[in-house]
Structure formats: C-alpha cells, structure tokens
C-alpha cells in the first residue's frame, strides 16, 4: 500500500471558515474540527436538532451498503469524498467479508490527508490507497486509482454525501457520467444525497447559512437524484431514505425512529 506525502503545502488547512467534512466530523462526535466548524454546526442544530442522528444514519447506510455489496461479490471499491476517518471505515467493513478486497479512498481536504494513515491500515491480503484530488478531477482520480484497482473488472463507486456539495454548474452530473463510463459491466454505484423534500423549511435555512459562508450546497429532489443513475439498474429497495435501505444488515442508530433522514440513498448496477 502506498503512503501519501504529508508535506507542509498539502497540509495547509483553512480554519477561517467552516468546512463540510469537519462539520460532519463534529456531528459524529469526532475531534478533527475547529471552533468555526462547531459554531456553524450549532447554528444548524438550532434549526434541526436531529442533524447528528441524521449524520449517523447516513454513516450506517454506508456500512450496510458495503456489507450488501460484499455479499454480491464486490472486491474493489473507489470511495470519493471519503471524509475524516471514523471507524469502522469502508475498507474495514469490506475486508471483513474478504481480506483480499482492494479499496482506494479519494478526498481533496488536507485534514483527511493528515489522517490518511488510519485509512491505510488494512489486511495484509488486500490493498488500500489514498488519492488526494478534487472530485471533479476525474482523470487524476482514475489515473491514480488504476494503480490499485483493475478497471477491467467490476468496481464499486461510492459517493457518500458528496454530490450535494457539487452544483449543476460545476458539473455534478457530468462527473458522475464520466466515472460510471470508466466502470466495467457488473460494477455498482452507491450514492447518499441531501434533499429538501423531507424538511423543506429547515433545508431553506441551512442553504442560507451555507450561502452566507460562500459554501456550495445543492440539495436535490427525488427526480434530480434519480438522474444520477440513468443507464443503471437501481437495486431493491430502490430510492429511499437512508434508514429504509436494507435495515436488516445493521444495528439501528439510536434515535433514528424519531426522525426522518434528510437525504435519499440508492445503489445502482451497471449492466453489459
């Protein structure tokens, strides 16, 4: 497994404004965040107190989806928008099913790079790598990931809580199309995505918070979410709220019965 270069330039972290990955870490109870992230996180809690539960529900979906995919025979994963490591990480779940599983993580946030060592601790039989790149730099991602993954064989493309930070103007649909086009038949794509459909007023207020900080937030409707899967077969149970996707594959998140999650999730399969 390769080790990313943690040089001073790469690790220049901007603490002058909140960052979505660090806020997510704060909601999950992590320590890799700064006062500016906590401040905005508390503003969001004033609008919707259940945000931490929603964050954990989203994380639990990733675990269940990975278990399901591993049971289908998936042995290669490309996780883009990895975020700050929170155990169990995707590779730990996947390699529990098969220690020889190969995983490539990708993120552009320097704080994720700083903790990449935690992401790279896998089984001796498997392979793990980390790519520091912007999600929109598809060529760089595929080029680096191709050193660990065999794109002539099926790969799981994991886009967990990523695409609502990429606007239509920045090419959200185009980047998904380019990534999917590089996948072999039999590959899968996993997406979780913020929506305003379930909590419209709260979503409007959060959107205003993001705009005030010059941050991108693009919650999408069910129809807009479904468009990411054009050309793919969406597996059962289809497009649902995170907590409704194969709940039998994991333990329920404490408090999830009292909230409706803020996003859609789905898994799609690429045919021949």
TrEMBL record:
Coiled coil: none annotated. It comes from the Bacteria. The lineage of its organism: Bacteria, Bacillati, Actinomycetota, Actinomycetes, Kitasatosporales. InterPro entries: SAM-dependent_MTases_sf, SAM_dep_MeTrfase_SAV2177_type. This is SAM-dependent methyltransferase. GO terms for molecular function: methyltransferase activity. GO terms for biological process: methylation. It comes from Streptomyces nitrosporeus. Pfam families: Methyltransf_19.
